[in-house]
Amino acid sequence: MRRLVVRSSTVPCPERRRGLLVCVGLIVAIIAIVAIQVSANTTGRWKWSGTACYWDANDTGPDQCDPNNPPSPTPMELNISGTSFVVENQTRFLVFVSMFDALRESDANLASDFQYLHNKGVNGIRIFPNWWRRTADYGSGTVYYPQDSLMDPQGNLRSAPLTKLLNVLTLAKQNELFVDLSFSAETVAHCPDDNCIQPPPDVSSLTYDELKTGLVALSTILSNGGSAYKHAFLDLQNECNKEGNGPSDKRPFFVNYTDEIRSIVQAIHAVDWHIIVTASFAGFMPPGDAAWHTADKWLDVTTWHQTRQNHWWTYTASQLPALLGAGKPVYLQEPAPFPDYQWTTAGVLDDVLAARSAGAAAWCFHTRSSFHLSDGSLYGHLTTDEKAVLDGLIAKLRDQ
User: What are the φ/ψ torsions at residue 189 (nearest 5 degrees)?
Assistant: First the structure.
């Protein structure tokens, strides 16, 4: 920062008889100039887009890069440029697959699943660190509030799930898979006997402050890992516009708590500006509203769950312009799962192609087969029709 030095000899104060007011006026003017100089030099900072170091005159804080010596991206480092995801200076369209219960899957099954997904042309996985504990696959068994979630009811990170999460991140990176860490405050509760069944009644207890504490703690760990975890990003609250989702003290609609969401984003970026932060919106929110809330909440990515309707893939291309209205990457995180809404393999493949063609940055193959993985692999749970989607993915995106 430049400093303006004012020496007493440079102030030509007239003789007293010509009036003290003239001298005072000159001093006030000089003070104003100094204030302007200070303001001009403390507003703005150099920021890193993932491909370039640029000056943002409307932002404050420490510089993220040196324009004369911009950083080189590391392998598997996820960045943003405009409405695109960027990997090693190349724009990439990323395909994710749901693996909600990955933290309960065995290491051997994870290794097998990750290799399978990589071979099918998948670029990333979506996991829930605070996911429900199920006793069987979707549609059967009992669902409990988990006592092995990453966050405990005070927002502290549990040691064993944290170790597992970092192992999952490492294994995913080895298989060239990015990781979407999607959080759900409403799944965390005080249940000392591990007998709290999923609502009703709703006994979730994680507050806003506790959620923020947990997210900042995890961000600190990811940041301290250096280049090890730059392939992961955070969805700070799944479907934050749904009535029962979010911190227990910030409902019915967490999306309406603008200052609180901004505060979490700021706190995470204060730990590490590189960490990409989003919050997802359920599809009953119109696409244009999702883009507006993304900008309003200072989120990095517009993350939207496609409207649940028959043949939803026929609407994708027409929805993207509104979603892109925030000028940020668009991530279609949850199309309809098998077998809902006249789901077909061809329809799902048409959906991912429409998403890419219309300008989305990422798309996720959403499957309930990932809801209960403690007893087997994702591959073992996928239906024949779901496997057919993954079998056709590379050809669909390569040939058109």
Answer: -150, 160
CA dihedral 283, 366, 238, 136 (to 10 degrees): 120
d(Cα 206, Cα 219) in Å, to the nearest integer? 18
Residue 58 forms part of a structural domain: no
The beta-carbon contacts of 104-109 under 8 Å, at least 24 apart in sequence, are: 104/131, 104/133, 104/148, 104/373, 104/374, 105/373, 105/374, 105/377, 105/378, 107/167, 107/171, 109/373, 109/376, 109/377, 109/378, 109/380
Quote the domain boundaries for residue 14.
Answer: 8-42
- What is the bridge-based pairing of β-strands 362-365 and 94-98? parallel
Residue 47 lies in a domain: no
CA 375 to chain centroid, in Å, comes to: 28
If asked whether residues 33 and 113 sit together in one domain, one would say no
- DSSP structural state of residue 304: E
The answer to whether the beta carbons of residues 151 and 188 sit under 8 Å apart is yes
- Give me the pLDDT at residue 45, please: 80
pLDDT digits (tens, 9 = 90+) for 380-400: 999 999 999 999 999 999 876
Tally of domains within the chain: 2
Domain shared by 24 and 144, yes or no = no
Residue 167 CA to its chain's centroid (Å): 20
- Tell me, yes or no, whether 56 lies in a domain: no
**65-89 tens-digit pLDDT:** 788 886 666 789 999 999 999 999 9
Report which of 134, 136, 132, 137 is spatially closest to residue 149, judged by C-alpha positions: 132
Statement to judge: residues 196 and 315 lie in one domain = yes
CATH number of the domain residue 339 falls in: 3.20.20.80
Residue 268 lies inside a defined structural domain of this protein: yes
Residues 245-263, buried b or exposed e (16+ Cβ, 10 A)?
bbbbebbeebbebeebbee
Whether the predicted pLDDT of 135 surpasses 50: yes
CA distance 191 to 207: 16
pTM of the model: 0.84
Distance CA 335, CA 38 (A): 50
3-state DSSP helix/strand/coil % of the chain, to nearest 5: 40, 15, 45
